[in-house]
Amino acid sequence: MHSGPGVGDAAGGGAGGGPWPAEPELRLFLFHHAGGSSSVFEGWESRFPHGWDVRAPDAPGRGAARSARPRTTVDGLADYFRDQLSPFFDRPFAFFGHSMGAMVAYELARRLQAEGDRQPDWVGLSACRAPGQPAARGQHELSNDDLRAWLAAAGGTDQLVLHHPLIWKMLEPLLRADLRVVDSWWPAADAVPLGSALSVFGAQDDRVLAREKLAGWQPFTEHYLGSRLFRGGHFYLQRQADLVMRWIVADISGSRRAGNSVDFTEFTDFTDFTGENEVTRWHRESGMWSSTRTASTSQ
Predict the structure, then answer these.
(1) How do residues 40-81 score in pLDDT, each as one tens digit?
(2) pLDDT tens digits, residue range 125-136?
(3) In sequence order, what are the beta bridge partners of 52?
(4) Burial class (CB in 10 A: 0-12, 13-18, 19+), 133
(5) Could you give the CA distance from residue 57 to residue 104 in angstroms, rounded to a whole number?
(6) For residues 150 and 252, which has the higher predicted lDDT (pLDDT)?
(7) Do 155 and 237 meet the contact criterion of CB atoms below 8 Å apart?
(8) How far apart are alpha carbons 109 and 9 in whole angstroms?
(9) Which residues in 21-42 are b (16+ Cβ under 10 Å) and which e?
(10) Alpha carbon distance 64, 8 (integer Å)
(11) Neighbours of 191 (CB within 10 A)
């Protein structure tokens, strides 16, 4: 995995290493959640098609961007990533973001469209409330004890991080800055629909974002590909990575082949998914399978 151009060494590799494709068919940018870093996508690059340049840029204040000042608004993060990544939008590209990263992906796509720049072929939004859905405000203002309890309930954070004094002291300011980003995001309800194809991903038992808050994204894109609901909590990506990546490949490939006119199933529920045959069959029938690498579905 590459830590991202402009958010580190643009000439070198990031976590996972390996050379970048000289002439990539597509660049896929993966944006991480609040309090996280590019390491959440460690190993993903090996499961995408050969010829895809998969990059996971770090938000300011961590990883390859540790020297940059943390931002406290989605607008600030979107502007930061636009400035850092725009030289690498010279080829077809796509965005996928989880939670805070999904907010960034959406707002960055909006900026590129408003400024008349090249737009992503596809935008994937994971665990992200739709415009008009109320925010669960105030997490960034919680006391340390309440914030630790909220993080423990959300899952995805090691107990050592929550209770080790030195680690917590380093993490807390960055975490609160990120949560301020999430708490303060009020996407425009009258926003011009994206020209990019858009898919929504979520989890059945997400304690951070109720599943009904995923509803309502369809009016904000000209090419809505549907919602994908997976088993698990807010950090379902940790256990369902292979299945999620198969759908990312399917949606990107399908929308590009159809010139963004494809209309997939509006709602796909994988919460009772128990095997690989169903998704394997879908990929074979839709012609997507030949472009993906074989990977076992994580349950």
Answers:
(1) 999 999 899 999 999 999 999 999 999 999 999 999 999 999
(2) 999 999 988 776
(3) 26
(4) middle
(5) 12
(6) 252
(7) no
(8) 24
(9) eeebebbbbbbbbbbbbbbbbe
(10) 5
(11) 15
